[in-house]
Amino acid sequence: MRGEHVFGGSPEHRFWECAACAAIYLHPVPSEADEARFYALEFEKFMASRSGGDRDWTAAERHIETNRDQVRRRWRVLAPFVRPGAKVLEIGCSTGFMLDAFREAGMGASGVEPSGAFLDFLRGRGHDAFGDMDELRAAWPGERWDLITHFFVFEHVRDPWAFISGQIELLAPGGAIVFEVPCALDALTSLYRIPAFEHFYWSIAHHYYYVPRSVRFVMEQLPVTCEIIPEQRYDLSNHLTWLMEGRPGGQGRFLGPVSPTTHDAYRDDLVRSGFFDSMFVIVRGRRPA
User: Fold this and answer.
1) pTM of the entire structure?
2) Confidence grade of residue 71 (pLDDT, cut at 50, 70, 90)
3) What whole-number distance in Å separates Cα of residue 266 and Cα of residue 263?
4) What are the Cα distances from residue 239, in Å, to 50, 142, 242, 243, 244?
5) β 224-231/208-209 pair status
């Protein structure tokens, strides 16, 4: 057993680790009906309870504003795939802050978002947005995208093979899938093992937690190549807040007394030593031999 306490779950929920592939999986899993209801009606409130104040889930415009740093952080990896006129699809696009950035870069941007509140907001701002993949395919049969992205969606998916396979079918020739997923090597659980974090980290919204080995295990079953780029999202200030107060939040809190150079060095050391908290994964279709 890897996660004894599941945030938002019931007493019977646990996360277990597979010895063969290192995937960490939820058991028992919610029904598909319960899951659909959760994303349609409850997801924003659930995420607000976990944000620690760093991300605002109370209003769509505030959500966009408090995620501008995420656009800048992700752009380092996305930049090679961004070109005017290319078509990008984001799955799980929430309020569309990434769609805004893609559109500003001259790309044709579309999104899929199961949240009813966010979907109405996206359409009201002129985005091509759909409630699920079936709706997207029905509206645009045969459409292909140069870039497909999703950020912190993969861990929510009950069948990762079907999820990625469906995206491969939607890629234009030479296209790529770029996504970000939490990494269970996170120092707060794998190095420091803070009890309060253990009660917080393992979430009922996630079917799986991944490490590089388990991501590769999934991708090796598919006709793709993949590249994994380690990433550290949360900074030294956030980690100090967990160590001092046992709660989320605090990103940037100690910048000033503790220099940006020290924060950067801490981030780089966690990545170098293998205790990073997320991964970018770049997936491309494997060409026939």
Assistant:
1) 0.94
2) very high
3) 5
4) 15, 46, 5, 6, 9
5) unpaired
